[in-house]
Amino acid sequence: MTFKALLLSQDTTGDKPVVTAEITELDDIALPQVENSVDIAVEYSSLNYKDGMVLRGIGRLVRTYPHIPGVDLAGTVIDSADDRYRPGDKVVCTGWRVGEMHWGGYAERARLNADWLVSVPEGMSTKDVMAIGTAGFTAMQAIDALETNGLEPDQPVLVTGASGGVGSSAIMWGSALGHHIVASTGRLENAADLRALGASDVIDRNEISQAPDRPLLTERWAGCIDAVGGETLAHVLAEMRYGGSVAACGLAGGNTLTTTVIPFLLRGVNILGIDSVIAPFEERQRIWTRIGEIFDADALASITTEVALDDIAGQASQILAGLTKGRTVVRTRPIP
How would CATH label the architecture of 2-124+299-331? Predict the structure, then answer.
């Protein structure tokens, strides 16, 4: 059998390697050999910031070509070497370096290790879980970490990069769990949409995008979900309330952090690192369960754009430039 895939190739003959993407037909025999394997008829994938980097050959995330990108995927089990999954089961995969080290979701077929999968929560479809994807999963991890470290309902929680996938999801999940969400965005034209998702307030990112001129500023935030990093994170740390925590889960604004130890020593501020890539199976089940308990199909649909597999490569520059809004779902095959 053959399947359609977006295949990346790398040309190294010039001064700088060039990555190109092409829709092609592959034979099933091309699928990699994987330990404890599950074969999946992929129905949906999604577009994340990391996907944009892979599609453009940025950051050396992919070392071996040809390569199928797509860090998220969801679909139906065709065959399984693991007793947890049977043909016909609906499964979702996010993380585990799929789409980087391993062939990913921008294809009609995938073969993955069973340990990387989770069953699609009851009441949700494969499209729903891909509208959530790594971004929404990461956002719930961040909220869960803040709550574990003392965040209580009604306290002010700043969400940076609020118009993006992680930010939009954090607004939905946080407001549904009773937190007072303040959305920071560079696109104030989206303010009404962010409030519709659950943000209590919206601020211009320029308020917090510069490094602080003092080690401590006025206390504002009990918690923060930061997908930006860089000078924004440095500024936010100086504005955290006593004992507050920042869940750091992105670097859209840079991976360098220049700050002082003063917020940590005088206000007991915490930075909580959020990793969604190698999160163990049990944590994935727990986080997906939490999402399923507060999942709102209409709210999710309002931030989701669907594109075909043939069109996804052209979206890379948009997400890298911060021009996408909400979540982009990739339909990999015709869905009955």
Answer: Alpha-Beta Complex (3.90)
